[in-house]
Write a structure and sequence with these properties.
Strand order of the largest sheet of chain A: 1-3-2
Largest interface: A-B, 55 and 55 residues
Radius of gyration of chain A: 20 Å
CATH topology of the largest domain in chain A: Arc Repressor Mutant, subunit A
Oligomer: homodimer
Largest sheet of chain A: 3 strands, antiparallel
Structural class of chain A: mainly alpha
Number of helices of chain A: 7
CATH class of the largest domain in chain A: Mainly Alpha
Order of helices and strands of chain A: HHHEHHEEHH
Number of strands of chain A: 3
DNA sequence: TTTTATAGTATCTTTTTATACACTACAACC
DNA sequence: GGTTGTAGTGTATAAAAAGATACTATAAAA
């Protein structure tokens, strides 16, 4: 495993020095999962049940989703509320800590949209350039 | 692989509808690597050479770092500039597109710091509570 | 009566990711 | 003449992540 405490060579080390772990290394660890950002994003609009999340992530297996959810729960970014009913009902939502990520998620969404805009305009230019060559 | 085009069940789908891919799914793909966020973070302060980055990521092997860098380059978030000298010199830096991520990285850093604050104050409380029980 | 739905767990296999280690070129330094 | 440094590549192996599939309980609906 990647040992967070061993490196603190961040260019904000003046601000980081008070922590044993570099905040950025921590964030990298919290968010580096194949679907964690998306799960947080879906939960940022409302509380969802297990299958609600699963439906939004069509290519995830139950096992993997459970794993990712447990990991986010361990990190205290989401909570898990079990209703003792049959059939089972389990709700997932952001914790107070998790809600602090929402503005970051919103910026990411904005960035993704910009990225797509730029890429598509590049493609338009490329198509134009290659048709000009005919 | 995880097929970005197959899901668009984002709660911002009104804004996403113009794209084939949900911007958030794209961002998840761009950033989900074990060290991508950190690499971008280090490059956001200045242009770095291969070994400069490697030194900042003590637990990464050359091969893995090369792989991550190539992937970021493919996604057009970083550039790679080779100087034809001996010994070799290669510089990595953020592209224009990559620079647009900087504000997100800065917020992440802030979030990480908050997270650590909260966690450490919880630990203080925990330690206090358990010592009170003696 | 059979089917459907929920939120999982258990087991096995495949795929992906990561590691260790050896090797390259050539200039400059000792 | 031997060593060091750079930025890699190549091969083999080990570890981790992901996937497929089958299975659970029980209520309610068809």
């Amino acid at each position: 495993m990647f040992d967070a405490e061993r490196h603190n060579s961040c260019h904000m080390s003046d601000k980081c020095i008070r922590y044993k772990v570099c905040p950025m290394v921590l964030v990298q660890q919290l968010l580096s999962g194949k679907r964690k950002i998306l799960i947080l994003w879906y939960l940022s609009s409302k509380v969802l049940r297990f299958n609600d999340i699963k439906r939004r992530l069509p290519d995830v297996t139950q096992k993997m989703l459970t794993q990712q959810l447990r990991s986010l729960e361990e990190d205290n970014l989401i909570y898990r509320k079990v209703y003792p009913v049959v059939p089972p009902k389990v709700e997932y939502g952001l914790t107070d800590l998790g809600e602090r990520i929402i503005p970051i998620l919103e910026m990411m969404h904005g960035f993704g949209a910009e990225y797509l805009e730029i890429k598509s305009s590049e493609n338009v230019l490329q198509r134009k350039a290659s048709s000009d060559m005919l």
